[in-house]
Amino acid sequence: MITIQGHTFHLQAGDISYAFTVDKAARNLYWGGAIGGEDLPKLAVEGFHSSFDPDTNAERGEYPVWNGHDFTLPCLKVQGTQRVHFLTYQSHELEKDGKTERLTLRFDSAAFTLALVYQLYPNGIIGRNSVITAKEPIQLEKAFSASVNLPCYQECEVRYAVGKWARENQLQQHPMSTGILTLQAKRGIPGPQYNPWVALCEKDAGETHGRVWFAALAYSGNWAMHIEKTEQGNTHIVAGVNDFDFAWALQPQQSYTTPVLYIGFSQDGYGAMSHLMHSFVREHILPPRGLRRVLYNSWEATAFDVRVEEQKRLAQKAAQIGCELFVVDDGWFGQRHSDKAGLGDWYVNREKFPNGLSDLIRYVKSLGMDFGIWVEPEAVNPDSDLYRTHPQWAYHIPGVEPMQARNQLSLNITLPEVQAYLKGMLGKLLRENDITFLKWDMNRPLTDMDSPELWSKHVQALYSLWAWLHQEFPHVELETCSGGGGRVELGSLAYAYQSWPSDNTDPYDRLFIQEGYTQLYPVDTMMCWVTESGEGRAPRSLDYRFCSAMCGGLGIGANLSKFTQEELEVCTRWIAQYKRWRPIIQQGVLYRLLSPIQGDMTAVQYVSQDRHEAVVFAFLRGQTYGTLRPPLRLQGLDADAEYAVNGTVYSGKTLCNAGISLALRRDFQSAALYIEKV
Ligand code: DGJ
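Above: inputs. Below: predicted complex with DGJ.
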């Protein structure tokens, strides 16, 4: 609900209140747990500043515009006939669309108009973005989505996810001190160095307690989030498209729309933050779909050597153990025998598939599985027919040797001829073959951008390709991947059904990655494969590998041709179990009971929306002789209901308060529990 009293706007949704006043500019009054609207005028906080400093209230702008008078980090910096700009409030508009409400505030200056948009979702998430429309020719030097302020002088800690290849989404948390913390992407791909979200919490907040304010940007290119704590003690998050090598020119009447920053607030720690975001992302961001299929992917088994006979052998084993989707990864096209050649030549390699793809697809379908395939449309190997024919299609700066990464260049997908080529290639592939799943990869950063606009235009071109795919091939599900987990964020998830979190499939390392991933992104989008034990790692049992991978969307990546009959039977049992539990895991509520960061035991629990069923996975890293561990306390069950666990009945309150003993004693041992209301 949005209420407006004079110049004060009060946005209420779920259990939160968000309020600001509009004089000339908009200034934040409050963001947090629900408050009485009648109390808004009483919220002014006593400030103190010397006569040398500006009023501390000036620090609390909803969208600071660089004007040379304000010293907090601005959202907008515009070069027009004047260097600085002052805005005046014009009007506001309220709209309702089903369960969501939208408020648009309009401001005016001599050079441009500004619209601030607030989209209010029922569970308390607010989407914020802005639209700048030129009145005279202007150049945007910075155009962020929003500035969001913590309550006045709130001390806080900051939590965010950092990473690199094979170590994505590692959580980091520390007290926020005076100064600016910058999280960002500068390589054209949104990750994995940082993931575009941040949470600020009161000191000592944890999984189940403490106030948490959080923000996530939906953008698949260069982004930045600056968390600024001023010397006066006010903290705000300024977020949007990175102004690193950014410029955008607007002619009169032309507009620039920023991506959306989603913000939310939890009264009860990080667990509740995740619950809010998971349900929001499922209901409002992800394309509508059902349960994720159990997939088999050939990458770790055969790498580039994908030959029809071996793929058939793998498919036969995959079907035997219960997989529902068979995905052929990199290597099926052109002269793609390694990462050195062939990328861009999207015709089937006839040495590997003498009878085309349809031979394998027919076989896969006859086994009762769907078929999926890997593509990397945004890149090209210099050693390819495509590059030899169209070298100018790769990003390049005249006179500069373009930089190769993984022996490849990036295609300038903003060129209409490249878009047409890619649509032709994808259209042919999907029309001629019974394919229901595309893994869309991107294995290098963007470089050699000849103008700063190209960074943003690349993202726009990517979204338009994905939108076209949805429209033309609505039955094809998309998985995003970028050299592992470089494209895990809300912009991609608006088109993709799932994403690939990391090339690191070690089941223990994955517990950390999965903990970071699920802070904001729902479990059903997080693909996890059972693979072989990595080189130099202590062997993890097949049970342990399955339990870790069953924490998300289950896939198999191991070379099944090398599995013994006994191992295949273990796989069959776990996959059948996963299919029974899948609605609870993929659509239930996630509770992170024990964090891998905090000790040698990790545990996660999934509770069905009706609280009738739950599944728990627990993992012991290593045992130290004689160490005894307390029972594992569950969460989210009905206190007064009775639940059966392994044939014994407990009350919900016993399971949540006293807990249940797991008896995990061996190194890298795991347990899976099914809990059902009786
Ligand atoms: C990187 C991905 O993360 C892998 O899963 C695999 O698809 C390779 N690319 C293929 O080149």
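The chain has twelve helices and 36 strands.
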